[in-house]
Design goal:
Blueprint: H1 8-11, E1 23-24, E2 35-36, H2 38-43, H3 47-68, H4 72-82, H5 103-110, H6 112-115, H7 117-122, H8 139-149, H9 151-165, E3 170-179, E4 184-192, E5 205-206, E6 210-211, H10 218-231, H11 239-248, H12 250-262, H13 278-290, H14 299-314, E7 321-329, E8 332-340, H15 346-355, E9 359-365, H16 372-385, E10 389-394, H17 400-413, E11 416-420, H18 422-434, H19 440-453
Parallel strand pairs: 9-10, 10-11
Antiparallel strand pairs: 1-5, 2-6, 3-4, 7-8, 8-9
Helix pairs in contact: 3-4, 4-5, 11-12, 13-14, 13-18
Length: 456
């Protein structure tokens, strides 16, 4: 069965949700769209995190020491090796593969230790500053450099989390472990989980360190500081001109860094998923209930968009949202939602055991009446890609004859297709608002009602 956006725990059939673990569950075929932010280690109340930040900055500043001693080649080699960390799987790559920087970019970064007197004298406190001086250096590079210098700790963290959650590990060679005693990268054989497709090692990343953008970044500096405090105008101000200005006016950058340190309380890690507020859920429900069926004025698209956002939030954290995707069946474009089945709820475990559903798919149908062909099309899709359980989200209850078709499918093929209607969605939002129960219990109720209608 082909999984949509497979994750490490899904590959090994491990029943935990993202909410339940301290690390970001890695995808196997793409990056997690977040970055490790060194500033979160700096501002952390944890002495361990503070010490790790100091270690990272010291490792980076050691490159300046090497430059000043004339060991340019060694400094460049270390920086290039530190510039990409595929094991971490953070960023925007769809293949979990990135490229290291070249020698020219490495030289541009290391020239800061010679070109800026303050850096030459004292080094960096926040090495993220290099984004403000060197072109083509942004969030992904900062994250990768930090990950590589932290790799020894991340290996220990990964091994600990794997033992805690029964994630399989194997002996594997890791080529870029930074040794702080020797100040260079070494190769070690360690026990880590590996990608089943590529056999590459995987590092687990603490959720508390991850952000969409590092707290110190070029875009924030340019829009919220440079334009307001320095230039006053943004037209015809190229990035290269700003970077050159910063090199010549380091005190401006230091003032910006000071403001970021003063407002550190606002710097928080970003969750991998943030449910919509209750008020938003109620507004989306109200919009859905007012929409006509069919395609008039793009009603079908509006219905689908609102259902996507609603369901992803209503079912969290019992079901982690995997993806929304479109498929064509008999020339008709159909919108689906796919959820990971982590078996974190009794009903979800039953679905897994009974129907082999490692992922749960929902088909969205903004129609007045679900037809027999809709059921057959959906059934074929489940047969090809998912387990034998699926949900049709539609406006009204299934007609009696169509409901009988779903019973016949269960009787003949042990496939289960249930329907969620406007009334069911309304009840889920009400429960979401009350916080007395879980919205997923509405789906459980519908499933129980369905099984009671099936022949014994």
């Amino acid at each position: 069965m082909a999984l949509v956006r497979p994750r490490l725990n899904d590959n090994f059939n491990l029943p935990f949700t993202q909410e339940e673990v301290d690390f970001a569950i890695p995808f196997l075929d793409e990056d997690i769209p977040l970055y490790l932010d060194p500033f979160l280690l700096w501002k952390s109340p944890s002495m361990q995190d503070n010490s790790l930040h100091t270690a990272v900055v010291n490792a980076f500043n050691h490159l300046g020491y090497l430059m000043n001693k004339g060991n340019d080649k060694e400094a460049i080699e270390i920086l290039i090796r530190a510039s990409e960390c595929n094991e971490a799987g953070l960023g925007m790559s769809k293949t979990r593969k990135g490229a290291r920087i070249g020698e020219k970019t490495a030289r541009n970064i290391l020239s800061l230790f010679n070109d800026i007197p303050q850096v030459n004298k004292s080094g960096f406190v926040h090495f993220e500053e290099i984004q403000l001086f060197v072109d083509q250096i942004s969030s992904d590079r900062i994250s990768d450099i930090a990950c590589n210098f932290l790799e020894s700790f991340l290996i220990d963290f990964t091994m600990s989390e794997c033992e805690k959650h029964s994630i399989p590990m194997s002996k594997i060679s890791v080529h870029d472990i930074y040794d702080y005693k020797m100040n260079k990268f070494i190769v070690e054989e360690v026990f880590l989980p590996s990608n089943p497709e590529t056999q590459q090692p995987i590092l687990l990343m603490p959720k508390r360190w991850l952000r969409v953008l590092p707290w110190i970044n070029y875009e924030d500096y340019f829009k919220d500081y440079f334009i307001k405090e320095v230039s006053k105008e943004d037209h015809e101000t190229s990035r290269v001109k700003v970077l050159n200005f910063n090199r010549q006016n380091y005190d401006v950058v230091k003032a910006y860094i000071s403001t970021k340190e003063r407002t550190q309380a606002d710097c928080k890690n970003d969750p991998l998923f943030r449910p919509i507020p209750i008020t938003s859920a109620k507004r989306k429900l109200s919009t859905i209930l007012k929409l006509p069926t069919g395609k008039t004025d793009n009603a079908d698209k509006k219905y689908e968009d609102h259902i996507v956002q609603l369901m992803a939030s209503l079912l969290y954290p019992q079901m982690d949202f995997a993806a929304e995707q479109s498929r064509t069946d008999s020339g008709v474009l159909i919108r689906d939602l796919v959820f990971y089945n982590n078996r974190s709820f009794d009903f979800l475990k039953d679905i897994y055991d009974e129907y082999g559903s490692r992922q749960i798919v929902m088909e969205l149908k903004n129609v007045a009446k679900v037809e027999r062909d809709h059921i057959y099309q959906f059934n074929r899709y489940l047969n090809d890609h998912f387990g034998r359980f699926g949900i049709i989200v539609t406006r009204n209850p299934l007609p009696r004859s169509v409901f009988k078709n779903t019973i016949d499918l269960w009787s003949g093929q042990r496939r289960c297709i249930i329907a969620l209607t406007d009334q069911d969605i309304e009840m889920m939002v009400t429960i979401f608002e009350s916080k007395q129960r879980l919205p997923i219990e509405v789906i459980k109720k519908k499933y129980i009602e369905f099984t009671r209608s099936c022949p014994s």
